[in-house]
Amino acid sequence: MSFLNFIKDxxxxxxxxxxxxxxxxxxxxxxxxxxxxxxxxxTGERWEFWEHDKPNNFDxxxxxxxxxxxxxxxxxxxxxxxxxNQPLPPNVLDIFVEVKRLYLDKRQRGKFSLLDTAYSYxxxxxxxxxxxxxxxxxxxxxxxxxxxxxxxxxxxCMEDVKITTNVFKCLIQDIExxxxxxxxxxxxxxxxxMMYRGSSISAIAKIEKNGFPIDNFKLNEFNEYWPKVKDxxxxxxxxEIDVFDGTTFSQKKFENLIINKxxxxxxxxxxNSGQLSTNKNLLKKYSETYSEIKTLLEIRTLQNMTKLKxxxxxxxxxxxxxxxxxxxxxxxxxxxxxxxPFSTAKWARNFIKAPFGxxxxxxxxxxQEVAIQAYLSGDQNLINTYNKGDVYLATAKxxxxxxxxxxxxxxxxxxxIIKVLFLANSYGAGIEWIAQQIKSxxxxxxxxxxxxxxxxxxxxxxxxxxxxxxFLKQKMSTCYGWQRYLSNQYKRNKEGKIVSIRNSIQNxxxxxxxxxxxxxAILDLTAENFKxxxxxxxxxxxxxxxxxxxxxxxxxxxxxxxSMKVVGGPIRxxxxxxxxxxxxxxxxxKPTKDQKMFDKIFNEIENYKKLNRPISPGxxxxxxxxxxxI
Length: 630
Prior knowledge:
Helix content is 48%, strand content 13%.
């Protein structure tokens, strides 16, 4: 029996589905559904449902309990079901996700459309991109359609359905060959894993529909007044670093900061001019260690900003963007950095605001990577260290770097050294990098690394075996089947040298299982009707009605149990309750630097508004000019 026939025998029908719709203002979710088209993959029967001129249809087109729905990029189709308030199909297979699982690190970025995939499988008798764009424009830019236009749209939609059917058949054969599926158990496992990922996409479509509740008043106020006050803000923050002449960047002052004040003599220089590089990625790298460089990065971001990035507001006043689950080789979400509130500057997160009658709860897996390393490897030392709470301090005690009574406050330097060792372990960094980070010599760094590898030798043996096995099988897989293919152990670096990829893939099993943990948590929370606002790396933002605050504990339990399902052990979940605007406070409850920046910006906006209020007819004298000088 083939895998395709196995799928056929397990469902009443296997239905290819495509929908057409007009999107909301953020181009994230359907705002008006136009039509649904289906094709039975095995019988060739076809169905058309024109929805544009109907009130919301609460009845399903099919009884989908025993059907498998096959889509290409299923967030759109699930979004259409949600828009019409129809029950969601329980069995979904997203071809787009499965193609990315096979080819994400092999195919050119941006070459994952339905047509691209059809061409890659040798299906050449399909519509052209120009033909698709023509009908898509007809759908997007019109709010009513003639009978001829209606026919054109339905034909266009059905053409996509037919392509989806053919691509699906090719994909299933491709998966059977690549994953060497030969037994019924192989087929069962593979089908369950694909449907698991399809269910994850359905949950993500719900999250995108939920959107971010935001403070629209403050957001509009910022966008209106920011151009008028930004010079004053920049001049104020430049006092800390003295890198600007007025609001103009000074290369001479920048060199003074980097070389004379911070002592970074080895700072990278440009090839052409020989000046110190101001490359953004280089600045980001050093901003983690030097607050002055972080401030410089913030100033340069503020300089180039006319309106706030990260907030695309939809018709209902909520911010949205595509979350793009399975966007990386580790299966994580990759929302647009320009459109996702948690990808913008940290101070700008304060525009997120709990809606009236609810609180927002930020639920974060605590030290998730260390926990996954511990549970997957079965390293009891690492498990014990994680269970003690502060893994860095616990490790420092384990290798006798600090006494048993040491605390985070009493031994911050030693704790930071261990933190660097964990980072080096996760990403395969060498002794030279460790020495640079902990500001020590090569031999001291090597000594610390040897101690670290000795106490966690079970983990190191496991990760080396995992990678060796991956090279042997030419792929690595998570427990739920997300994969990364390994066709070669070596690659050519930027300098043209042939180097091993071992270090670069060392954290793949940890990151990818972290993705699986978060997906399982999303599915389990969604099953209990929690309203998830967004996944944020290894955390979730959830909206909970104020009378139901007891559900916070339930959500924590669900997330912890999800981690146990995936990696075999409990990962702690911390919570932060947001009752109004998002606030950024330190461990002592005091405003962080990011919170102070947000407050300062709005203080300047208020000052500007006061000084520039219209003068009433009874007032005398001239209007007050806002002075941006310091």
